Amino acid sequence: MANSFSTALSGLNAASTAIDVIGNNLANLNTPGFKESIVSFHDLVTQSIGAGLGSTQVGFGVGTPITLRQFSQGALQSTGGPLDAAISGDGFFVVQNSNGATEYTRGGNFQVDTNGDLITATGEMVQGWTRSNGVLDTNLPIANIKVPVGGLAAPEATTTASVDLNVNASAATNDLFSTSVQIYDSLGNAHTATFSFTKTSTANQWQYSVSVPDADVASPPFSPVTGTLTFDSNGNLISPATTDTPPQIAITGLADGAADMNVTWDLFNNGAPRITQFAQTSAASAQAQNGAPAANLVSVGLADGGEVLARYSNGQQVVVGQMAMATIRNPESLIAAGNSNYQASALTALPAVGLPGTGGRGTVLGGSVEASTVDIAKEFTKLIIYQRGYEANAHVVTTVDQLSQDTINLKQ
To answer: Are strands 125-130 and 143-144 parallel, antiparallel or unpaired?
Structure first.
């Protein structure tokens, strides 16, 4: 009976620890990326009483419970936040705390600080790759993700242009059709390139001319780029052919002081001619060019796959960064570090870092967060069970105390 006090006390301590774990789970019911912990109980060594070996065994109570974190998938909740991200599947976002230590998290509430670093809601640096010199190289080691803050995006001079159109096969000689494409020089100034097509007296043949306004060049007039387009009996472009060098539109001596331009006129799309000659009204259906003016940064957001996108006032979206993800074979060995982050322990397998969606890593969904895996109904059920266990052990203590008092009274 002397051991009953310590046995019941171990039960009280175990139940108290379990209730603490439940309290922590419930407290983080709404914490994004939080993973619930469960309690694993185990008994202590038993002692044998009596002459028979093992005929009567009495235990010494319950040991300190072991807490196990359950890394199950939480529900994905759409938030619409431009810098929110959720992981669907296995893996963790990689972050670095203020001491330079690497941590792992499933919490996806990110933001950008004044230095342009992508950080967690609690200030840890998000790790990945940043676009540098126009290149995003994911073969480099991971580092802090830098995003542009304010300023202008440099202009991009047009180097290729195209027009998708049809010229009327029923057109008379000298009939004219024109369409225009806006192109940009190295300073970001726009120029209107006019593509004119004139029907010749030769069947299935048109004369083309490409020009810019005389006011755009320092020494007008501008000399148009000219040539001939020839179609077959089915209305398909046969000259220039796909094997020929595409027409080059050279614009030199620009009045605004920009660099000379040399624009390639792309007449084919994966081998299919962009210009046809059918018995339909001459009309352009599409146009394209790869230049852009200088633009202000409008917003930065996270896209699916963990890409960091910068959107500019000219409508362009540029991938300026890529988030890294880590997979860990035994995530239950991670140690909670607070702020929804985890650190590797001595038992943790070496994390494998790479791109989302590769090597067994889950995918990243932008504009969403992963909800806590805590089930309030299940937690309250366990809370009642642990409460009953605590009360039962407390009753054992009072019973043993009463029996001890009765024993003392017998001696008296």
So the answer is: antiparallel
CA dihedral over 15, 17, 19, 25, signed as positive or negative = negative
Asked if 84 contacts 107 with a C-beta cutoff of 8 angstroms, the reply is no
Strands 152-153 vs 295-302: parallel, antiparallel or unpaired: antiparallel
Q: Are 232 and 203 a contacting pair, CB within 8 Å? A: no
pLDDT given at position 48: 55
DSSP 267: -
Model pTM score: 0.75
Element housing 125 (H / E) = strand 125-130
Residue pair 156/292 in contact by the 8 Å Cβ criterion: yes
- State the amino acid at position 11 in one-letter form: G
Write the pLDDT tens digit of every residue in 84-108: 999 999 999 999 999 999 999 999 9
Whose structure tokens read 């006129």? 265
Task: State both tokens at 33.
Answer: 């990326």
Q: What share of the chain is helix, strand, coil (3-state, %, to 5)?
A: 15, 40, 40
Pick from 107, 150, 148: nearest CA to 126: 107
Helix axes 376-411, 2-27, angle to 10 degrees: 160
- The count of residues in the chain is 412
Mean pLDDT of 213-241: 96
Q: Give the separation between CA 355 and CA 352, rounded to whole angstroms.
A: 10
Give me the phi and psi of 274, to 5 degrees please: -85, -15
DSSP state at residue 279: S
Domains of the chain (ranges, CATH numbers)? 2-71+373-411 (no CATH), 77-152+297-370 (no CATH), 160-293 (2.60.98.20)
d(Cα 196, Cα 210) in Å, to the nearest integer? 6
